[in-house]
């Protein structure tokens, strides 16, 4: 996938000077939006050269001082040298600093012209007070026009260029985080959870980008303050000292508030990372969660983290409200104090001085958000360290490798501390010749998968050397946990390579998928869902084998991590004969497996036996003793079963009801804002040049003080009401969203990409927490400000209303024209954003597969294409905003000029109060930015409301609620299936077709059959995870449809086919509910499953399991799930391929444990190994969704023609 060059098709680069100045080149885009033709991403503008995604990514991530050597892939011995790191801030400075800093010239010019308004206002009011020639008034009016006109253009283009730099930074950071995730060392990447990396790409990047428009305020503020003081000194002399002291005190206090806000913000982001991390793990293991009825338990954990996050958010918002209050009331207090001292000292207040000082004291340029985001740069730079692996050559000599976990600590029960670092591969001396088939066998946790991880550069080398000449072309790797993309089966197989029909069909046949493709609704064009959830475990494993066989058919080295564990003996033999030892013959293959039969036919190949302490021996005779010299016959694929699919989840949403329900104080805030604004407008009204005879200036200052106090009170109420309303809305939205997601059926998770759901809990929730209340506050404040300004201006200069009418018509037309386009662009931006997060999460899940295949560049290019599509929409949105902004700025210029001209005309025709002229002009000068601010804040509020809309899509879905039985249930564990039928989707064949059988309480039943026969579907129906099409399931005389899913699943235990653990301690994973208090019980469960030694080596019950239990092998995770089941007091226990990833000896141990500890329980065991069900009371044989045989294992074996006997003989 390549990113096409879009430079020649960008309208901006071909536009003329006048068109660029007033954004006339954006008119075709606005016309499209007005005609509702912006219905797809291709309708928006292409990116200019300086925003090209591929160019920015290559420039940002390039490091001239550290270019990787692509000629070979070799490991260098570790040396004690400090690695020079390149932080994000330095990279941003190096790539965008010059352009960004030069934009300060536009900012400086705009700020300087902003001071021309108060100066010219002073002269114009003096002109009205005196008898100066009319030409002087025209000069002042012309000066106001030129200063406001040029200032408006400079301000608009400064904002436009800064936002373009923001888009460039956003592109660079998103692609950099993705690139580092694909290219960084796995040991370094393991320092961050999936949730943290997702936050890097979403929340943290957005916060850094949002800071860009505020940076220039830091150097601009001191300059503006100095100029303001100089102008104030010219007006009131040394009397400004009192106001200056008050301003300094307020600044110092505000600095304290900003510091506290930074602390709260840092804590909040830490809790947010923890919450997103846990939510990601829950979604990845949602089947395990629902099987064990942990929804309420995990919801409580999420809510407890959210409570800590909300506590920090509450402190942040209330301190932020304090800042808003201070900066809103400080100008009023400074003005009141300055006027009072000026009058007390015997000076006369004139209209010119009052208006000029009033404008200078407003300090609008200081009312900006403080920088609270500097820590994000330090937080994000951790993943941006330049630690990319270099190309090397592979062989292992005296190698020692580590996963980089910390040494185990002293256990709380007094266990001895293990010396050194755990989970090491030590003293590896391995030589593998070209073309060999090498088998790697050993007990659970011996390090078989770690060997493949060391070869594929996923582990940290501590000593020795390793070279591999195959890394130039990449390594073909089949992981123990199958990873597939959310795409069609064919796309997953080809992985971007060219389609060779003849070879494709050959490989489909050799991997026994021909029958499966035949019954799928779209054949191999059927979508497999998120991580292949719509396929069975065996089908996913075979598709992964196809990927390594079809796309990487010319690879020299194949790493196969137990690919036969998920399929039955029949399919395993076929795949080994036709694919591993057939199609891949002649290549070097390293096969980790517990299926020892295939290794017997690996002629002339040394078989590596891996023992407990990770030491290696080449021992062919021992292997033969393990497998008893059994052979696998060739099998044809015509008799293999088909796959199953799931049902989609339909949904509806009602955004407005959710938004109003979560923030009931919005109406109150509107009322307070209106009251506050009109009190603020009244502040300048009582002060006149010629006060009535009955009152002196001090009387008016007292009235002004009362109004200022009222303004202060309303401001305080407004600030804290919005803070409270925002916190309450954020709290209720998260509670409702989490409850809805936890109650969603399993079909919803099959049809919805994981990245989309994570985005709702990360980026969208952060928008509701922070940006939406802030922008809504700004919008309501600005609209009341504009309305008040127009009223005051018309009151001071009634003739201005004649000009106001055509301006109002023009304003309505422009904003309506813009909103039609803006709405469509916001929709396209939202649509194009979700695929970025979905692809990012999907790629993170499969990075251990992507890197060895050398497919990182393909995924990086696809990510750049997705970012490019989204940035095209964002760029077009920016252009539309500035098209509107420059026109509204020009309307403001017309208003300012109109007020000045009206004042001159009225002064010449009739008497006009200089105070009224000054009042009208002082407010008219602020309307230039006010008009633009209303539309901008409204569209931004509308944009952020999309987050509420997306969350309400899930919140408003009704979930079925069943009753809970009051009496103890079940008592015996008897199970009956009555003509059960299951169809995952309406257009798919039945996965279960009329299944009927009875199981007595306490009976041990094995369930066998070929891959895709419907075995796992029985468990899905039994646990109520999928609704049946027909029939009924009865447990102890009660139809499971009549009881709640919590009670149903809580009374049964399951060991799933894909074992899943959560981040946290061993204790928390053994006993998630905390029902078992005694450590002796936990150690007993571990010892019963053969995991006590592993637990002691890791550091005891409180040792950390790592993300998704990565410190344990797949087999050890299955044993831990068995130990967890032992601790539960249930009547029904289900084992779904619970021994697929363990060796034969561990399998026998598990069977003994089941017979001993589950003696009085009903046990259902799905297994591909016939030995695993031989001790069962009865065996159920499934094929194509039917029960074809039921009976005792011995009786079925004595019938040579039985299906069970045929499976056993294979």
UniProtKB/TrEMBL annotation:
A Gene Ontology cellular component where this protein is annotated is: membrane
Q: Which UniProt keywords apply?
A: ATP-binding, Glycoprotein, Membrane, Nucleotide-binding, Repeat, Translocase, Transmembrane, Transmembrane helix, Transport
ABC transmembrane type-1 domain boundaries: 102-354, 699-943
Listed InterPro entries: AAA+_ATPase (IPR003593), ABC1_TM_dom (IPR011527), ABC1_TM_sf (IPR036640), ABC_transporter-like_ATP-bd (IPR003439), ABC_transporter-like_CS (IPR017871), ABC_transporter_C-like (IPR050173), P-loop_NTPase (IPR027417)
Where in the cell? Membrane
Q: Which residues form the ABC transporter domain?
A: 394-639, 975-1209
How does the record classify its membrane topology? Multi-pass membrane protein
Q: Which residues form a coiled coil?
A: none
Q: Which Pfam families match?
A: ABC_membrane (PF00664), ABC_tran (PF00005)
Q: Which domain of life is it from?
A: Eukaryota
- Its Enzyme Commission number(s) read 7.6.2.2
What is the uppermost EC class here? translocase
GO MF terms listed in the record are: ABC-type xenobiotic transporter activity; ATP binding; ATP hydrolysis activity
Name the reaction it catalyses.
ATP + H2O + xenobioticSide 1 = ADP + phosphate + xenobioticSide 2
Major localization listed first in the record, in broad terms: membrane
* Bilayer-crossing regions: 100-119, 139-160, 240-258, 318-342, 655-679, 699-727, 771-793, 799-818, 884-905, 911-935
Protein family (similarity comment): Belongs to the ABC transporter superfamily. ABCC family. Conjugate transporter (TC 3.A.1.208) subfamily.
What is the name of this protein?
Answer: ABC-type xenobiotic transporter
């Amino acid at each position: 996938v390549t990113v096409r060059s879009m430079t020649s098709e960008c309208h901006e680069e071909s536009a003329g000077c006048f068109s660029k100045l007033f954004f006339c080149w954006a008119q075709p885009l606005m016309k499209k939006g007005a005609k509702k033709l912006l219905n797809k991403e291709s309708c928006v503008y292409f990116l200019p050269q300086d925003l090209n995604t591929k160019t920015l990514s290559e420039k940002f991530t390039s490091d001239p001082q550290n270019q990787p050597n692509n000629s070979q892939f070799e490991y260098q011995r570790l040396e004690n040298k400090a690695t020079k790191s390149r932080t994000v801030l330095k990279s941003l400075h190096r790539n965008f600093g010059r352009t960004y800093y030069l934009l300060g010239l536009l900012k400086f010019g705009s700020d300087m012209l902003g001071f021309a308004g108060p100066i010219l206002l002073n002269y114009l009011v003096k002109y009205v007070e005196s008898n100066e020639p009319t030409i002087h008034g025209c000069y002042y009016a012309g000066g106001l026009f030129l200063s406001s006109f040029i200032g408006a253009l400079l301000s608009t283009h400064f904002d436009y260029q800064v936002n373009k730099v923001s888009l460039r930074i956003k592109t660079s950071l998103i692609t950099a985080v993705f690139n580092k995730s694909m290219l960084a060392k796995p040991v370094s990447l393991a320092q961050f959870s999936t949730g943290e990396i997702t936050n890097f790409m979403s929340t943290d990047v957005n916060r850094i980008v949002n800071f860009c428009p505020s940076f220039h305020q830091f150097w601009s503020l001191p300059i503006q303050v100095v100029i303001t003081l100089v102008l104030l000194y010219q007006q009131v002399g040394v009397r400004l000292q009192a106001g200056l002291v008050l301003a300094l005190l307020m600044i110092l206090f505000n600095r304290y508030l900003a510091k506290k806000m930074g602390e709260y913000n840092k804590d909040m982001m830490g809790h947010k990372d923890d919450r997103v991390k846990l939510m990601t793990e829950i979604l990845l293991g949602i089947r395990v969660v629902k099987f064990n009825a942990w929804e309420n338990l995990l919801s409580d954990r999420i809510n407890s983290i959210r409570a800590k996050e909300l506590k920090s958010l509450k402190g942040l918002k209330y301190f932020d409200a304090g800042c808003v209050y201070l900066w809103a009331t400080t100008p009023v207090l400074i003005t009141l104090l300055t006027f009072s001292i000026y009058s007390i000292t015997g000076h006369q207040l004139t209209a010119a001085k009052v208006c000029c000082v009033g404008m200078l004291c407003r300090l609008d340029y200081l009312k900006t958000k403080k920088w609270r985001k500097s820590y994000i740069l330090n937080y994000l730079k951790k993943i941006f360290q330049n630690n990319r692996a270099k190309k090397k050559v592979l062989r292992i000599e005296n190698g020692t490798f580590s996963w980089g976990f910390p040494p185990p600590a002293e256990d709380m029960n007094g266990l001895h501390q293990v010396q050194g670092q755990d989970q090491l591969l030590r003293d590896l001396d391995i030589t593998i010749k070209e073309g060999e088939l090498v088998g790697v066998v050993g007990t659970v946790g011996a390090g078989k998968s770690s060997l493949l991880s060391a070869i594929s550069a996923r582990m940290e080398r501590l000593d020795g050397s390793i070279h591999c000449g195959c890394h130039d072309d990449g390594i073909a790797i089949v992981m123990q946990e199958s990873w597939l993309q959310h795409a069609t089966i064919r796309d997953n197989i080809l992985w971007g390579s060219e389609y060779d029909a003849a070879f494709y069909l050959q490989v489909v046949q050799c991997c026994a998928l021909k029958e499966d493709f035949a019954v799928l609704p779209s054949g191999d064009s059927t979508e497999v869902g998120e991580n292949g959830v719509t396929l069975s475990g065996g089908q996913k494993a075979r598709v992964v084998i196809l990927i390594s066989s079809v796309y990487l058919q010319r690879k020299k080295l194949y790493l196969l991590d137990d690919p036969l564990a998920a399929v039955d003996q029949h399919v395993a033999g076929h795949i080994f004969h036709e694919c591993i030892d057939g199609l891949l013959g002649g290549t070097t293959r390293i096969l980790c497996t517990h299926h020892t039969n295939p290794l017997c036919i690996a002629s002339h190949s040394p078989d590596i036996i891996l023992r407990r302490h990770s030491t290696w021996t080449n021992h062919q005779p021992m292997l033969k003793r393990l497998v008893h010299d059994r052979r696998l016959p060739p099998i044809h694929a015509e008799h293999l079963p088909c796959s199953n699919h799931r049902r989609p989840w339909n949904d509806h949403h009602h955004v407005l009801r959710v938004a109003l329900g979560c923030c009931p104080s919005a109406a109150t805030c509107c009322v307070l804002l209106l009251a506050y604004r009109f009190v603020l407008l009244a502040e300048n009204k009582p002060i006149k040049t010629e006060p009535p005879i009955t009152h002196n200036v001090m009387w008016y200052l007292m009235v002004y003080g009362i109004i200022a106090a009222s303004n202060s009170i309303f401001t305080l109420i407004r600030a804290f009401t919005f803070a409270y309303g925002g916190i309450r809305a954020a709290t209720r939205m998260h509670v409702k969203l989490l409850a809805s997601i936890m109650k969603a059926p399993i079909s919803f998770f099959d049809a919805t990409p994981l990245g989309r759901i994570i985005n709702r809990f990360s980026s969208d929730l952060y928008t509701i927490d922070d940006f939406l209340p802030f922008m809504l506050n700004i919008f309501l404040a600005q609209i009341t400000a504009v309305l008040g300004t127009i009223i005051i201006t018309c009151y001071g200069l009634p003739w201005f209303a004649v000009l106001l009418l055509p301006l109002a018509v023009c304003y309505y037309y422009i904003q309506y024209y813009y909103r039609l386009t803006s709405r469509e662009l916001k929709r396209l931006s939202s649509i194009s954003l979700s695929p970025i997060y979905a692809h990012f999460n999907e790629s993170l899940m499969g990075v251990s597969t992507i890197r060895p295949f050398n497919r990182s560049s393909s995924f990086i290019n696809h990510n750049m294409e997705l970012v490019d599509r989204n940035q095209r929409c964002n760029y077009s949105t920016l252009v539309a905003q500035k098209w509107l902004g420059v026109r509204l700025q020009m309307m403001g210029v017309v208003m300012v000029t109109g007020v000045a001209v009206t004042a001159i005309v009225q002064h010449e025709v009739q008497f006009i109060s200089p105070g009224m002229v000054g009042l009208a002009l002082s407010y008219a000068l602020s309307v230039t930015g006010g008009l633009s601010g209303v539309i901008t804040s409204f569209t931004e509020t509308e944009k952020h409301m999309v987050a509420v809309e997306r969350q309400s899509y899930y919140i408003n879905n009704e979930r079925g609620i069943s009753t809970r039985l009051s009496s103890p249930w079940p008592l015996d564990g008897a199970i009956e299936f009555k003509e059960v039928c299951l169809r995952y989707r309406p257009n798919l064949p039945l996965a279960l077709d009329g299944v009927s059988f009875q199981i007595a309480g306490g009976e041990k039943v094995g369930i066998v059959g070929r891959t895709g026969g419907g075995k796992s579907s029985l468990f899905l129906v039994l646990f109520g995870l999928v609704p049946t099409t027909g029939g009924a399931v009865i447990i102890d005389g009660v139809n499971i449809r009549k009881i709640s899913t919590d009670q149903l699943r809580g009374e049964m235990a399951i060991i799933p086919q894909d074992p899943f653990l959560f981040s946290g301690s061993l204790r928390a994973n053994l006993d998630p509910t905390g029902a078992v208090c005694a450590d002796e019980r936990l150690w007993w469960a571990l010892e019963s499953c053969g995991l006590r030694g592993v637990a002691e080596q890791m550091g005891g019950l409180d040792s950390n399991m790592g993300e998704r239990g990565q410190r344990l092998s797949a087999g050890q995770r299955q044993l831990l799930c068995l130990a967890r089941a032992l601790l539960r007091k249930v009547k029904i226990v289900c084992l779904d391929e619970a021994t697929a990833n363990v060796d034969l000896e561990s399998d026998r141990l598990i069977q003994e444990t089941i017979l001993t500890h589950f003696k009085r329980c009903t046990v259902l065991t799905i297994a591909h190994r016939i030995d695993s069900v031989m001790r069962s009371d009865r065996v159920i044989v499934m094929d194509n969704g039917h029960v074809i045989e039921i009976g005792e294992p011995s009786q079925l074996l004595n019938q040579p023609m039985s299906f069970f006997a045929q499976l056993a003989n294979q």
